[in-house]
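[Automated response] Your request has been received and processed.

Submitted sequence:
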Amino acid sequence: MNTNCSLVSVADILLVDDNPDNLRLLSAMLSEHGYKIRKAINGSLALRAVEIAKPDLILLDINMPDIKGYEVCAQLKSSPQTADIPVIFISAFNQVLDKVKGFEVGGVDYISKPFDIQEVLVRVKNQLILRCQQKQLEEQNAQLQLLVTTTKAINEADDFEAAIKATLSQVCEKIGWNFGEFWIPNPDGTTFDYGKGWYASESCFEEFGYQSEKLIFTNNWTIPSKIYHSKQFLWLSNVSVEQGEVFLRSQLAKKIGLKTCFGIPIFFNEQVLAILVFFKKEVSEP
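Generated structure:
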């Protein structure tokens, strides 16, 4: 998983405290490190600010005059639209029971007043990284769920190859891949023919499809062969730098601008009927 989340450096942080001095101090120290800061002086304004634009993180004072921080957090966690926003409580109260109550209503961390700058920065960064990684996992799970659904539809289709072609475009368009192709194995999985129905999101990637149509793979180290024999998905972060025996089209991929590769087998009665392979122009980790 990619831990260098772009979210961390440009995060939108909502500060909630009825003390203007605390708001100024927190705002100054966080803004200096590149975060986008919004401020609210009470719980009601905080909830309204969240409705207007969902923040990436909330630093929330507990002891406020209108709505206590615990109640603000509880309201946020009760709504599916805001339940995933991480909340760090800030308070002069430093008793164990105060911290426990904060965690019980859905807080993810607790910072005691007076503030230590380094502690605030580390706790904020840690929560933003965790949130970013959670989003990445959710996106990957959504992608895998789409693949599971579409592969099931392929297995049940009357026209197998037509279903594969439709799947390539659907998957690429919905989860942001730039090129999709499929390979058909012979009965014993020793050769793999290139399917006549690839998908390219842009015209610049079409050459990859036209050139690949000429190929028949027999090498046991190629991507279709590896997937066929392992019966598992395969991820390569940058095929343009892979050795030729692993990815025979590495130079063509480099020329076209395709990098990350993800392949998955299509089964029927435990037999691999086809291999779907997707590419995108960014380098990314699984």
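Summary generated for your ticket: The radius of gyration is 25 Å. The first strand starts at residue 12 and ends at 16.
If you did not submit this request, please reply to this message.
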